[in-house]
Amino acid sequence: MRAAVLALQGAFAEHERILEDMGVEYMEIRQEKDAYQDFDALILPGGESTAMGKLLRDYHLLHILKEKIEKGLPVLGTCAGLILLAKQLTDGTPHLATMPVTVKRNAYGRQLGSFVTEADMKGIGRTKMVFIRAPYIVEAGEGTEVLAQVDGRIVAVRYKKQIGLSFHPELTDCRHIYEMLFHI
Ligand code: GLN
């Protein structure tokens, strides 16, 4: 089992720390040749989706990663990572566009941009969730399973082997979510 973490920008080090603690081997994806290596799961971190999307294109990573995901590579997208996976954004151009969901960026507004709460997550149970200028899922398309909602808004979904979260499991050490990815 080897995980890959997209390490272009954002909170990739926090995911790596959890993988280390879990004893999971991992590599970083920073340039095109990294994406051609063999790995069993991919983590797309939080950060700034516009910047990550630009770097994915500039470094010729977008198409190779999209193809791997479409062929069944398990992937976990957190926050900006969820935005990268979405087929549709309420505002802006999609990036990897592998998950049939519509995502609204910075959806909680500036005032309520960051908060912590707890909600039930399917297959996991009560889960602490940290939101930072978070997106939420406005519409989950055919084949997607809603895993969690907060105040009636979808914040976690699964589509085939793709998991998308509005929140940051790497900040709460929520290993169950990583286990879910590795056993998907
Ligand atoms: N607001 C960021 C974006 O649109 C996402 C925030 C995050 O990843 N914490 O990319």
Question: Could you outline the blueprint of secondary structure elements for this entry?
Answer:
Elements: E1 2-6, H1 12-22, E2 25-29, H2 32-35, E3 41-44, H3 49-58, H4 62-70, E4 75-78, H5 80-85, E5 86-89, E6 99-104, E7 114-121, E8 125-132, E9 136-140, E10 144-150, E11 153-159, E12 162-165, H6 175-182
Parallel strand pairs: 1-2, 1-3, 3-4, 4-12, 5-6
Antiparallel strand pairs: 6-9, 7-8, 10-11, 11-12
This protein binds glutamine.
Glutamine binds next to helix 5.
Written account of the structure:
Helices cover 26% and strands 36% of the residues. Strands 2-1-3-4-12-11-10 form a seven-stranded mixed beta sheet. The protein is an alpha/beta fold and 184 residues long. The chain has helices spanning 12-22, 32-35, 49-58, 62-70, 80-85, 175-182, and strands at residues 2-6, 25-29, 41-44, 75-78, 86-89, 99-104, 114-121, 125-132, 136-140, 144-150, 153-159, 162-165. The chain is globular and about 40 Å long. Strand 10 (144-150) and strand 11 form a beta hairpin. The longest helix has 11 residues, at 12-22. The two termini are 13 Å apart. Bound molecules: glutamine (GLN). Glutamine (GLN) binds next to helix 5.
